Records
---
Amino acid sequence: MRVAIIGQGYVGLTIAVGAASAGHQVIGFDINDVLVARLKAGKSHIEGVSGDELSRLIASGTYLASSDPAALDGSDVIVIAVPTPLDEARNPDLLFVHAASDLISAHVKSPALIINESTSYPGTLRKEIAARISGVDHLYASSPERVDPGNTQWSTKNTPRLIGGLTPAAVVRAKEFYGSFCDIIIEVSSPEVAEAAKIFENTFRQVNIALVNEFAQIADALGISGREVLAAAATKPYGFMEFNPGPGVGGHCIPVDPSYLAHVANEVGVPATFIKRANEVNLAMPAYVVKRVVEGAGGPISGKKVVVVGISYKSNVADTRETPAAAVIDLLREQGASVVWHDDLVGTWRGESSSPINGADIAVVVTKHDGMDVSAIKACGYVFDCTGSIAGVDGI
Ligand SMILES: NC(=O)c1ccc[n+]([C@@H]2O[C@H](COP(=O)([O-])OP(=O)(O)OC[C@H]3O[C@@H](n4cnc5c(N)ncnc54)[C@H](O)[C@@H]3O)[C@@H](O)[C@H]2O)c1
């Protein structure tokens, strides 16, 4: 099939490579010219796709990056994989989805199967995409992306894929497309079910992470190890699922997607109380971390040299979007500490560069990548570990 993927970020590039590897002719379309030039040169910007793999697909003629919207026309399949952020009032902001739909409307004159993979609330495919695209009789399907960057066990290929179509013909075509590079396809009765399943999955994670974050605080106040309790609870073979406490939630999905569900819930008159409370608990974790660091380090930290280790939002990825490290660093600075950060995968961030770990009075480990220098961390005067992976030090 001739496939165009709109958006070449974490999701779009992953799908582009999956489809190109299956032998489809893929155009990776993005409005970011710098990114397109890099992709054309075979340089990948995400962990799950190597430069070698990209170069091989380019050489075989199955992948071509482009910023020319004219390249979209003539596609059998067009996948939308663009950001779905929140606006300043934390409401869904569909500007990128609308822009992608308008591009299709303006440039695609032959009928195609249009699939939305961007995460959004139920009704997005029908009301915000299909209703905006005029002039051509396209087919429409929703297949929310479940990719977990950096996860080596679950990939696009072996993660079951949900599909909901606006019409039976759209479902048939979407199954044909995804069936060529995904092992398990699950058809649901409507795009709204597929869209809602995705945001419920992420809400489930957000709420459970908030629950263990609150529990970690209760356990610490009781003088017992929250992580030991959670590990003990996880020995129950049924009816329990393990989640880990941490310094807050980061990334583009867990802190954002539940607010899409809360938004539609409010529109239909159901207050999404769990989502609101989970947001409050998770957003308060950096302040809790800093309070524990001050107590653990033996009092005021003004003038102390602090290194925050691991500033991406999770291990083994360089993604700093919504990272709780930002609030941890800001709050430590508000306490008068002299704060630097170290991350083996992130070179520069917020106009600052990664600094060495050595020589700090206090190390606060927010995220631990494989191969991080634990001995340098342990050589600091006081260590507070938010990851539960460094033995013999304070933490959550
Ligand atoms: N990153 C993840 O782990 C993940 C997982 C599942 C679902 N999602 C969802 O997938 C969607 C995309 O997320 P992402 O992480 O790939 O985002 P991203 O920011 O990594 O990439 C999005 C890309 O879209 C491009 N773009 C924006 N507007 C465009 C337009 N009009 N035309 C062409 N390109 C355009 C941007 O330049 C960018 O390169 C979001 O809805 C997100 O919630 C993300």
---
Amino acid sequence: MIDDEADRRALPGNGLPAERVLAEVRALRSADRPTHGGRLFAYVYDPAVPGLDELAAAAYAGSAHVNGLDPTAFPSLLAMENALVGAAARLLGGGPGSAAPDVVGSVTSGGTESLILAVKAARDAHPEIAAPRIVVPASAHAAFAKAAHYLRVAVDTVPVSASTLRPAAADVAAAIGPDTVLVACSAPSYAHGVVDPVAEIAEAAATAGVRCHVDACFGGWTLPYLRRLGADVPPFDFVVAGVTSISVDLHKYAYAPKGVSVLLHRDAALRAPQYFAYADWPGYTMVNPVIASTRSGGPIAAAYATLRHLGDDGYLRLAAATRDAVAGLADAVRAADGLRLMAEPESTVVCFTATDAGLDLFVLVDELAARGWHTQPQLSYADLPPSVHLTVTAAVAPRVAEFGPDLAAAVAATRAAGPVALPAELLTLATTLTPDALTPDLVAGLAAGLGLTGPAPAADSAGAEEAADPADPAVSGDGAGTAGPPPGRMAVVNTLLDAAPPALRERLLVEFVGLLQRPTW
Ligand SMILES: Cc1ncc(COP(=O)(O)O)c(C=O)c1O
């Protein structure tokens, strides 16, 4: 245990025994959401395969100090990286004997890096375009916006239908202009788990002579297996002629530890502008396929071990278990009073919304958390209502029978608690404030008022008070989920964020997370 002030420092005056340090890490970890056990529906992908964690950890440890900076110095990494790229390419319609025999790729640190590099390659393939643009469905992952922001590329957003949750290929085609360097689509989208009309979108892109990236980061490893199990999965990979690149995250449904995604290109010429090389300085000549220069071999070795151990048959079994879990969870949602599915599940997501205003989804998320189910709230967007997202993994399968009764009880408790009532002044603030008007004092006051940093929140929600565990703020990825307010306060925070327009949401999130990220001295 961490027992005194000075001992909390990462750099104590005197080094501590290994056992003691590990005990500290374990103690810190005990505050986290449960990464195993099939009750966490975001962030962590758990196949519940005995021994897999230990295997991956051993492989990770054995290569943790190996540096991917120079593939000639550490051929082990190059070999494992090439093997991972080959496996991903084969799974996604490429490789020898396929319609895309020349597929090449790189291992990146995650989906976001893969998407940034897909955008970079597309941008740098056209140095003659002064103000490059990308066409992106509104349902595509936020990492495209991040890529555009980092790379100074403009985004043309194509709306999605409120009923199908997909973009219309005709709208994508209409958005392509002379400065478009890339068209993106998802297979499937994270928020709702639906597969975009990839064939039509890729055809529109090809007709315009533009690259088409399929973001299969989330579900690219499961869709082929679901198809083999009989699901009606439309063509989404290199089988589609106009698809020029695909990303697939191994740290998601390939069940590898964090830090591994694969970015594939149909051929080496398409990949070439992804690289950065530099020889105009007195140090070592540098050539980087990815954003990082020094790269640990740990994640790559762990992913390699995971794929080798699970094998094709293992992934097929895990996909079947996941499919059954999805079906069971969707049935529970259908049976609940006042919930409806946002879309019929077609991959590994169950996403639902409320059918009446008496059922506050943000309170429901807290009520589910109080019962040990960690779901992910999604804020309202354009004409889409707020929703609750469940990323379903194979580990959920044995838990499905417990979910229905808990969901019903959580719904009843949510109705009894009633919707969150934000104080009028907070609501006015959320709807009228411009991001630039946020002062540090205002942010600190808001954070304290919401219970993020200080005293109890002013708003009233019985459901929130009963909750025993914090649920996610409606942000995905790192950040606000890493530390946070006291148990059960998130309905209030999410209600405030939901009332605000996206630009203010973004600014509030940055400020709130900034308050959490303070050094310990
Ligand atoms: C479809 C999709 N693309 C990209 C990403 C970004 O991946 P990462 O969090 O590994 O950067 C995600 C993450 O959930 C995703 O679902």
